[in-house]
Amino acid sequence: MIKDLTKGNSLKLVLLFSIPVLIGNVFQQLYQLADIFIVGRLLGENALAAVGASAPIYFTFLIIAFSFTGGLTAVTAQRFGAGDYEGVRRSVTHSIRAGLTLSVVLTLLLVVTLKRLMDILHVPAAIYEDSYNFIMILGLAMVLIVAFNLLSGFIRALGDSKTPLYFLIFSSVLNIIFNLVLIKYAGLGVIGSAVGTVIAITISVVCCIIYIKRNYPLLRLKKEDWAYNPAFMREHLNIAVPMSVQFSILALSIMVMQAVCNSFGEKIIVGFTIALRIEQLATQPLMAIGLAMATFVAQNYGAGKLSRIRDAVKKTCLTSFVLSLLMSAVMFFFGSHIIGSFLDHPDPFIVEIGISYLSISIMFYFFLGMIFIFKNTLQSMGKPLYPVLSGVIELCIRFFAAVWLASKIGYQGIYYASPLAWLGGALVVIFGYYHNVYMVRESDLKKEYRALHKKIRAAGAAAE
Predict the structure, then answer these.
(1) Around 84, how many Cα atoms within 13 Å sit in the side-chain half-sphere?
(2) Over the stretch 247-268, which tens digit does the pLDDT of each residue have?
(3) What is the rounded CA–CA span in Å between residue 205 and residue 211?
(4) Are 293 and 316 in contact (CB under 8 A)?
(5) Which residues of 106-127 are buried (b: 16+ CB within 10 A; e: fewer)?
(6) Helices of type H across 283-347
(7) pTM
(8) 300, 81 in Cβ contact below 8 A?
(9) Which of 198, 71, 183 is nearest to 136 (CA)?
């Protein structure tokens, strides 16, 4: 259902919008956990290590696609907030062009660089072939991944976070079913997990397109909507490119961590793989609030309502703090039991690796929540400088902790990489928010947006 987020209680709107996003993210994480659960249980430690050892490569390409499409659809949400429905449709067509171009570039880049990237990550020889095949199959389906994120983003831009949830649940269930069938009954091994994911997302994309055509008249494109406007495309890219750069920096820092982790052998890889996936699930409520803020801020920025943005930021920060404490408690009391459940015969050393990392990272979840809120707020207003700087700081801190500390105290040094990076990154975007948003007058913000909109209109008229 289409929802206008420029009216009503800001915290209530953000939380209600975030609940379907949270459930969807949890399902997405659950099917990723199901992947390694199925692989670990049915194929053993080496197969699980094969999935985890090169996972940051796929994560890098995936997060670039996710952040880029999120930047594109932020403009769609701005146009919807401004009541410019023709602009909404033109944003969709420009986003489709940009998304298709991105998917082709990422696919070609993966094909050309995959072996080199795996060598950089020091993927052990015993699991090299399975790791390569797993990532290559997923990478060749990049156009489908971009399409699914783009379609979901268009729907969320209109204030509807429930429909993308339904499609994500549908895709997750299909993924688990196909993985079980292809691994357990077809005997495809690790490759079966990748193939199952591709089949599931293909079906989901087709169903999503059909549903949008039938149920969203606002997104039914006309011939004139496909007219290309260079200035309008630049507006999309001015948000999408910095977002993808920022997240690619983050992904690069995680690749550095994984390369160091891989150098310590398969058991260390398994312990970190399980712990990181559990952590990703535990921090989903924080991410969901951040993603909800992206749409909320974009719509209210388009409507020129800065006071609502400030109010939502203040209230969601407090909410994020409470959620951080809750998630930390869950990880503290149940983390070791959850880690052990991923293997048929859990090695005590593997469980120790996972719980040692989680016991440190849980103390910094609040700072991760601040990153989600402030980054999404700044990006949705087209102010990418501090989010990008935050990503650079995170990269530097992770590199220092993973490389320098690991050289001094062993694999335990990796425990501190993400927590310290969250602290440094959060301080940067909090400062950026107060500099770019909190100290700005609402009248100035309205003038800024109207001037940009007028400039794009003029450029489009000149092109015609």
Answers:
(1) 20
(2) 777 777 777 777 777 777 777 7
(3) 10
(4) yes
(5) bbeebeeebeebbeebebbeeb
(6) 284-302, 306-340
(7) 0.71
(8) yes
(9) 198
